[in-house]
Amino acid sequence: xxxxxxxxxxxxxxxxxxxxxxxxxxxxxxxxxxxxxxxxxxxxxxxxxxxxxxxxxxxxxxxxxxxxxxxxxxxxxxxxxxxxxxxxxxxxxxxxxxxxxxxxxxxxxx
Length: 110
Hints:
Pfam families: EthD (PF07110)
InterPro entries: EthD_dom (IPR009799)
Organism: Seinonella peptonophila
GO molecular function: oxidoreductase activity
Protein name: EthD domain-containing protein
Radius of gyration: 15 Å
Number of helices: 4
Largest sheet: 4 strands, antiparallel
Order of helices and strands: EHEHEHHE
């Protein structure tokens, strides 16, 4: 399994970013082929900074993780017109505030 991780920096207008994610991007992801799961994290606090007496606002506002069964299927999804539309829309709207990475998922249990 592989996942795409999208980290969204804090912005001046957090409501606009939230609206984009929940009203546009997430509905598009729900319709994207081959996505087996996705998660959204809304960061509220940087606990290390808070303990150090610094600004507790985290660097990132949101993280979206998009899971695919394999790299091959991820590549297939990117070639699909709907997959291209999702990623192009994401980069068009968020190019200045996003970091994106792709990695293999290693499941580790206690």
